[in-house]
Amino acid sequence: MKKRLLLLLGILCLFISNSTVSLAQVTTAGTGRISGVLTDSLTTKPVEFATVALLHSGSTQSSDVKLTDGQGRFTFSGLKTGSYDLIISFIGYKTKTIKQVTITEQKPEVTLPKISFSPAVTQLKEVNVQTLRPTITQEADKMVVSIEGTALAAGKSAYDVLATSPGVFIDQEGNIQLNGRAGATVMIDGKLTYLSARDLRSMLESMAAENIKNIEIITNPSARYDAEGTSGILNINLKKNTLFGVNGSASAGANYNGKQFGYSTSAIVNYKAGQWNSFLNLDLARRVFGRDATFTRVFKGDENTIYFDQVADGNGIVQGPPFVRVGTDYSLNDKHSVGFMGYYGTNKLDADFLTDTYMGYAPNQPFLYVDANNYNTNRFTNFTSNLHYAGKFDTLGTTLSADLDYVRITNKGYANFYNFEDSLLTDRPVREDFLYTETPGGFDIYSGKVDFSKPLSNSRKIEFGAKASKVTSDNDSRFYFNNGDAPVLDTTRTNHFIYDETIIAGYVNWNSLLGKNIKLQAGLRAEQTISEGDLRTTDEVKKRNYLDLFPSLFLQQRVNDNYEINYNYSRRVQRPNYGQLNPFFAYRDPYTYWLGNPELRAQYTHSIGITQVFKKTYNLILNYQLHQDVIAEIPIIETETSTTIYTIGNVDDSQSMSATAIAPIRIHKNWDTQNTFSVSYNEYSVVVNKERVVNDRVFYMLQSNHNIALPYNFKMELNGTYQSKAAYALYVVEPRWWVNTGLKKSFLEDKLDVTLNVNDIFKTQRLKLATKIGEGNVNDFDQYFRQRNVALTLRYKFSKGQKVEERRRNNLEEVNRTGG
After folding, report:
1. pLDDT of residue 25 exceeding 70
2. CATH number 2.40.170.20 given to 245-818
3. Structure pTM?
4. Distance between CA 737 and CA 739 in Å, rounded?
5. What is 2-119's CATH number?
């Protein structure tokens, strides 16, 4: 009895939400009536509280919804003449469809024969085995990793799932590499995420993986997509709310990285009634991060050589009020819908970076000690809004969609730098230097786009569209000496930079069959870029106006049932993000700082790929990329002052060749693995001190993800990754490896998930980089970003409704470039 009462309370919202629809129908409906009785196919007992949706035949939009009563009965009344379909579903049963129930003037009332409803219990064991790992499907221009319903998604975050996708690596700052190459673009439901790398990682960590339908790995995007992103696109498609009434989830978790405690809470509420489909997402968290590092440098001078040894400790906390994401779609009719999405979030960052530095003329013989302590506070705010229209114009699939977007991002920060220098050869201090900075900045992004798709005869289709966007960035960085009673402006390290950029784009995409087993997709995208960088401090203005063409070509050949081969080519661009173009002065210690580069040029990439699919399961991907004007971090050594300046510049060019194999293997009926092996050759060429330096290396990476079903309904996941020595710009990255594991147990009929995760168990995910600039100069890093952590998460899911339809949105590109 208690269980029934709880169930009745849970569906109360469903009755209320449909009452208005039902009343409206009574006033305009006819006199027709459809009724029936639902019974269990095994026990022949009535099935109560099952959901029965009524649709006009050929429609995907329900006109009414009923729940069966205690005797399994349902009735639809007040119906006009016509043909109707019934869709019946209930938890634990197979969805059943009854088509073409006809109401006529001669027969206005239809009583259906007893409906036998089949339980899905007999399939549960087999389904659980099949869905331990995600299914991977290779299409002409992308790889689709299906997450929905797999053990991989249970109790995990979107970040966890993305980080273990084939060929994907995410570093501690949230920067994403795809098949060993930086420059991947991230989208959610075809829309870019409006966030810097670190904020994107925070958002993905708060997003439940159970809400993900699939991940599209698009290494060579077609002309339909923005040309931005040289290594490809990762598009996370979320499951659409297809349940009438109220459903969602709530979660709470805590984590510890050995020095800092963090927590996260989130809530997702979906509500569908009549023609409205709405959602509300909330995220409240305390994100913690930090690093322990050593930096070793050698400055080779004409007379003296300086040895620089630094030990650093960094800590950071990001927290604030809940991030809110809200949206709704309204179906005007079966063919047209409009929608709105809004996102607002603000948080406060408090971070420190504390260094102890020893400098001398010989190793381990210092003459100077520098104690530099940096304290930074920043307030980040993001407001994003989207208006959307989607239309279907015929049964062939002719569609038109339109999006209008506005994004406002602000960063308001300040920092204090306390520097103490002491001589180790005398008993008196050398210098004290206190500095202060204020760094207010922000971005306004406006964007509008239209996409049209028209299927033609003989399996042909044409797509075309247009997009216009405008970005205005305003950053006013002020640097002060703070050694006296009041701060004094340092004009040499202060700048006010305003950047405006307009991009006007258009594309056409053609799809057709070439014979029986070959599919062709060819496209061309044109983008006109107009930009102006205005350094108000010095009245320097940098204007650019250029047109680029981005062709793409895909051939998908089905050789036989067990072998398929895909050929692809595309040209891509990576424009500098707005922070890199800002000649901003970022201070770390008296001998180390970072500078932006307003002269930075866009990077272009030609990519050629061949993908082979064996038995629809195993993939071998061959790829060649030629990068021109590569954007990379470049250290500049000033030997006279023993200073290192890090900046972003264009190295001349680079090329890479890679082979990636993806092999899912079932070790046991309860033990599935997903394995990815990549080997590549990467070459960078750059001129340093008027001499050409070539940095090249063969790199390989192995990812192995294991999903194991244990007794007593426990599930375990074990992830291992190894990366060999690699080349990046002027740096050589040392090998590293790591192992993560997780254990999950479900309770309350799988409504409550309890998950325990331990990452980087052996504390081996250490980042070591080395580079030599000129003869005798050394610049080495050894950093650990506290990847080893333990996390406990509880997630409760609630759901009641009927699956009816799906809908998706489109994309916006500019905001990924707002990150520094």
Report:
1. no
2. yes
3. 0.75
4. 7
5. 2.60.40.1120
